[in-house]
Design brief:
Strand order of the largest sheet: 3-4-2-5-1-6-7
Largest sheet: 7 strands, mixed
Structural class: alpha/beta
Strand content: 25-35%
Number of helices: 6
Helix content: 25-40%
CATH topology: Rossmann fold
Radius of gyration: 14 Å
């Protein structure tokens, strides 16, 4: 199965928007949204509810009611044409195993667009793109994987 990873220099830089554009072009591709919780403090400016909700090493979410929830990145990926959308929520220590299990859930698709930065520590995709804005420094997870990125898209 072919894979494209869309990673980012920070939150809210345009990863989902780029993933949507790719999915509109790539027929019969699926999408995997990866969210890694932070144990010490949530990196988001808002209370996203993710960091405090992840108690197990990882969760694989396929429930259509959750995937299609208005305003969620997963709904945007589905509406962009993804054949199947899965959301992996993981703690850092559960990411590798969760990623492996989530990817095994995809069937009968030409490939998967993966939105997530930390996944590059564990997989070698066919293409990896980092979305970066001109003014921001790299978040720690992006600094760790920058050498594995094929293309940096500055927005």
């Amino acid at each position: 199965m072919k894979t494209i990873v869309v990673s980012g220099s920070r939150s809210r830089v345009g990863k989902t928007q780029l993933a949507e554009r790719l999915l509109r072009l790539l027929k019969s591709w699926s999408a995997l949204k990866v969210t890694v919780s932070k144990d010490d403090s949530c990196p988001h400016e808002r209370n996203c509810g993710i960091c405090s909700d992840v108690r197990e090493p990882f969760y694989i979410i396929k429930d259509e009611a959750i995937i299609n929830e208005y305003g969620k990145d997963t709904a945007r990926l589905k509406n962009a044409g993804a054949k199947q959308v899965i959301w992996l929520k993981a703690k850092s220590e559960g990411l590798e195993e969760g990623l492996s299990k989530a990817l095994s859930e995809f069937s009968e698709c030409n490939g998967v667009v993966i939105e997530g930065t930390s996944v590059l520590k564990f997989i070698k995709p066919d293409l990896s793109i980092l979305v970066k804005d001109k003014s921001s420094a790299l978040k720690p997870s992006a600094e760790e994987v920058i050498k594995k990125v094929d293309l940096i898209l500055t927005v």
